[in-house]
Amino acid sequence: MTMQKQRTTSRTGSTAGTGPAAAVRLADVSVRFRSKKRDVTAIGDVSLDVAPGEFVAIVGPSGCGKSTLLKLVAGLLTASSGEVLLGGEQVTGPRHDIGYVFQRAALLEWRSALRNILLQAEIRHMEPASARERVDDLIRMTGLTGFEDAYPHELSGGLAQRAATALALIGDAPLLLADEPTTGLDRDLVERTVDELRRHTDEGRALLIITHDLAAAERIADRVAVMYAGRIVEIADAAPFFGAPGPRHPYARGLLDALPERDFAPIPGMPPELGALPDGCAFAARCAYADARCTDERPAFASDLACHHAPTGRTHPLKEAADA
Ligand code: ADP
Ligand code: MG
Fold first, then answer.
1. Is the peptide bond before 20 cis (omega within 30 degrees of 0)?
2. Is residue 182 part of a domain?
3. Which of 40, 64, 183 to mutate to test the pocket of ligand 1 (most atoms within 8 A of CB)?
4. Tell me: the pLDDT tens digits for 201-218?
5. Considering the entire predicted model, what is its pTM?
């Protein structure tokens, strides 16, 4: 069963300016990590708006800056430049009004799974009876039944990840950030978890999820943001992205083609080191369409795309020429 995705507003393009405040707004944000050894631009000039009730999936290769982006939204990291706004308010430090499923489950080792989750309810001053009811629901939903009294070291990676998801959902925060919440889970648990996250957004809350699971993203996301080498290279509505006409950025196309049920053509080579990015398009060295312009000039992010080949519209002229 596929969950019904609700799309009440058009979410393409930048929505800066008018209308209700975005749940999340990133405006030209960069994050640089400087050390004696290296200088890394983990995020470079990223802009993204997430509307209340919207579910955005972030995909991209390891080390491209996905977790950094989420930490920035949570106020756990400070931007080197640009602005981060939640509900129109500038983020200046760690936020307590968001739920966060960390990439590595953050559970207290000396508390059982149940008591780890209950602690979140206490921190949020929830009334004990309703907190207990909600926790029991979440335990059922995340498939933790039978493991309530287990301590974190007794939980498998997948179970710990499920406990982390339950923990993030408990407060019904208006914004939920999830960093690979389904890694290591069986298919049915992946679906249960993302369906529960989806229900969360259907109640008007926003969700930003990082995932390698494209099937899960297709199942529940409203929009997809594709990251590569510290930038968002494409933002698209999920339906045209996963269906027709498909992604516009060559990296994103490669990502879908690499799925077993598609062409299964892996993207050749390795992504560049963020400390040693080329002057031009970071994907140029791996891109079948790259020309001199791509190696010389970094493509601007325009019309939800950073690629010299498809500046406007949904078509990909070079791909079409190659297919003809
Ligand atoms: P992803 O989640 O996409 O795998 P990350 O956001 O974790 O990528 O990391 C992006 C880049 O930033 C990597 O090169 C990583 O080494 C670097 N990085 C992340 N956090 C820090 C930090 N606190 N200090 C220095 N470099 C960091
Ligand atoms: Mg990460």
1. no
2. no
3. 40
4. 888 899 999 999 999 999
5. 0.89
